[in-house]
Design brief:
Number of domains: 2
Radius of gyration: 25 Å
Number of helices: 14
CATH class of the largest domain: Alpha Beta
Structural class: alpha/beta
Number of strands: 12
Strand order of the largest sheet: 7-8-6-9-10-11-12
Distance between the termini: 80 Å
CATH superfamily of the largest domain: Response regulator
Order of helices and strands: HHHHEHHEHEHEEHEEHEHEHEHEHE
CATH topology of the largest domain: Rossmann fold
CATH architecture of the largest domain: 3-Layer(aba) Sandwich
Oligomer: single chain
Helix content: 40-55%
Strand content: 15-25%
Largest sheet: 7 strands, mixed
Length: about 350
């Protein structure tokens, strides 16, 4: 750097500013520095060395409990990641995607990532990566939980929201079924009557199931009669497959889906089989995605963009606290009103 400064006829501070804070030097100075650097074969300050000196990487790691393509395919994950990216833009920080499929190589990659902290999307209470993240000592925020010593979390009260949306759907109806997100990391699809939430390791799935159960019991519905179909992944096709199985015996009159994508698939299957919505069947979703209003879907509304942004701000030290996540119910035609139910 000193050689470049001497060749350009400027101070070493001017050379440093040219590369690190270019707005602090004039265009003419920047041009002289770049010309001298090119002549001397100087490529600029070594960012890796600077990171070693400062202990800061200007990068945030996003740990996905899914394969990497999920981040681009799933609408809810995209909105959450957009919120993180918005904070990165404000903070001039890079974003590193770190898939976690529970392989040893994944754990090592996450632990050794050159990042200043982590935001976690989708994991279970028994995931060993939680201990690994806590052990790094870097700030970490988990969307949707679980609560874990040394880590922060962000998310709505899923149990209360599930209770509220199910209560709306169960007006004048008594035969619900649930299309659920996956219960654990095994990705096995099963149908369980009277599902026990304590057996579920994914905290979001567990809390939503508990909320649906609360609403059913308060309505006087015997929980042991309520079928829950656990899906292998969150997609419209998986929702349609699940709904077709649940509708096969034509005995249910409500489908409570744990995501809008699953609900859209259930809507496809139900209307394709000749069920009238909401005359024969009420349907609810979750997240209030952009397509939910056009589909007249009653759903739980939450801003995953805001949650992603707040989590990243806390991790990067731009905020002292994680914002409280809020939710509300968007009541639309898929649950109808009592006079519309046939």
């Amino acid at each position: 750097m000193a050689d470049v400064a001497a060749s350009a006829g400027v101070s070493t501070m001017s050379v440093s500013y040219t590369y690190n804070q270019p707005t602090r030097v004039s265009p003419a100075t920047r041009d002289r520095v770049h010309a001298a650097a090119a002549a001397l074969g100087y490529a600029g300050p070594n960012r890796a060395a600077r990171s070693l000196r400062s202990g800061k990487h200007n990068s945030i790691g996003v740990v996905l409990g899914e394969k990497l393509t999920y981040a681009f395919e799933d609408p809810q994950a995209r909105r959450f990641l957009s919120g993180i990216a918005d904070t990165c833009l404000d903070a001039d920080t890079a974003l590193m995607m770190l898939p976690n499929l529970h392989r040893d190589s994944d754990i090592a990659r996450i632990r050794d990532a050159q990042v200043d902290g982590y935001v976690v999307w989708t994991t279970g209470v028994d995931d060993p990566v939680l201990d690994v993240l806590a052990g790094t000592g870097r700030p970490t925020c988990v969307q949707g939980g679980p609560e874990h010593p040394g880590l922060n979390s962000i998310g709505i009260d899923d149990r209360a929201a599930a209770d509220a949306v199910a209560t709306i759907a169960l007006r004048n109806r008594r035969r619900p079924a649930i299309v659920a997100l996956r219960p654990d990391s095994r990705r096995e699809s099963t149908v369980v009557h009277g599902a026990d939430a304590s057996d579920i390791s994914m905290p979001v799935t567990r809390a939503r199931l508990e909320g649906y159960r609360d609403a059913c019991i308060r309505r006087g519905i015997e929980w042991s009669t309520v079928p829950t179909l656990f899906t292998t992944h969150n997609s419209r096709a998986e929702g349609a497959r699940g709904a077709r199985l649940l509708l096969r015996d034509n005995v249910i009159d409500v489908i409570l889906a744990m995501s809008d994508e699953l609900a859209f698939g259930a809507l496809d299957a139900a209307t394709g089989a000749g069920f009238d919505i909401p005359g024969h069947l009420a349907l609810t979703g979750w997240d209030d995605s952009p397509a939910a209003a056009a589909a007249h879907l009653t759903t739980v509304a939450q801003s995953l963009f805001d949650q992603g942004r707040s989590a990243a701000r806390w991790v990067l030290g731009l905020s002292d606290t994680v914002d409280a996540a809020v939710w509300n119910i968007e009541t639309r035609g898929s649950t109808g009103t009592p006079r519309e139910v046939q």
